[in-house]
Amino acid sequence: MTRTKTGPLAEKLLRAAAKTRNQKVVELAAFAAGRQHAAELQKTIATPERMADLHPAHSVYVYVQNQVSVMSETITQLPMLDKLTAVVGKAEDAYMPSGPPMSPLTGSYFFCWAVFDAAKGRAKETIGTCILAVARWAGADPELIRIMEIMQDSRMGLYIHEGSEGDIVHLRELVTGERLPCLSPSGYRGKRDEIWLARVLPPPAPVFQESVVFTTPYVITDPGEREWQAYLEHTLPKARGRDTRERYAYLMKYGLELNYWNEYIFEAYANHQTSVVFLRGLPDIEESRPHSRKSEQMYDTAIAAVRGCRSRRR
């Protein structure tokens, strides 16, 4: 893992922090450093007692997510981040993330996209990179910063289910071929050969052996691995990177455009259960996704044709 570089937006933020003229910057810096006068903000964080039912590896990430969430609420009120917050606001209005049946974009997925992936500029700055810059400047706990960096560096991925043992799900990532024993905190264990679209975080410390499927799993019921490999083969050359792995990582984090994966999930929604969302189709074949404009037009045409036939019979 490489340390996230400080981009132009973060530099503006740090200059404002150094001048300490903006109360929101002061609040954020105090919170990040854990100072006493940020105690009211700290009260909103999930305590260890509240997370007692979580697996320890998962609870580490949930705790840091909650810390980041509160910092995000403060930082997004700053005028120098208006462009970033506008991006997230527009996506929120368009996709209404809340999980099925309201929207297939779950809260866990959208939080990570909004904070860690929704990037602006050549430096690919996000709300998360700006929070990290302030946390380092404020002298936040190094362990907190380390976990925040893991989450900022994370991305979605495409995985093949290779079986499960008890609570452990074995996933193999397309392109990288990496095999990972994973915790699936949503409770969904799945079955062999399923394709999962998910954000998988590495073990947060050496004491843990399992990675964590941090988002509610999106299971793609159709098409299968061969079609997805074909999609990746002709799509990866369009992504930024020096080699196949870098281009794959870029595609899965940023897509080919800002709302690439948001749009795919929204249009590919097929069904859901409490612990999993089912998708169908490919990002580059519009008619393969149930809720794409072309699919809905084809459906409307078919319905009109059926109604026409019934009218003629009468």
Characterization of this structure:
The N and C termini lie far apart (69 Å). A five-stranded mixed beta barrel has the order 1-2-3-5-4. The chain contains twelve helices and eight strands. It folds into two domains: 8-153, no CATH class; 156-288, no CATH class. The chain is of the alpha+beta class and 314 residues long. Helices cover 47% and strands 15% of the residues. The longest helix has 21 residues, at 293-313. Residues 36-42 and 298-307 have low confidence and may be disordered.
Describe what is shown at a glance.
With 314 residues, the protein is of the alpha+beta class. The protein has helices at residues 8-19, 23-33, 39-42, 56-75, 82-95, 107-117, 127-138, 142-153, 225-235, 244-254, 260-268, 293-313, and strands at residues 156-165, 168-173, 179-183, 195-201, 211-213, 218-222, 269-273, 276-280.
Keywords:
alpha+beta; 47% helix; 12 helices; 2 domains; 314 residues; five-stranded mixed β-barrel
Q: Characterize the largest beta sheet: strand count, sense, and whether it forms a barrel.
A: 5 strands, mixed, barrel
Largest beta sheet: what is the strand line-up? Answer: 1-2-3-5-4
**SS-derived structural category:** alpha+beta
The separation of the N and C termini measures: 69 Å
Helix and strand element order = HHHHHHHHEEEEEEHHHEEH
Proportion of helical residues:
40-55%
Average pLDDT:
88
List how many beta strands DSSP finds. Answer: 8
- Radius of gyration over C-alpha positions, nearest whole angstrom: 21 Å
Number of helices: 12
The total number of structural domains is 2
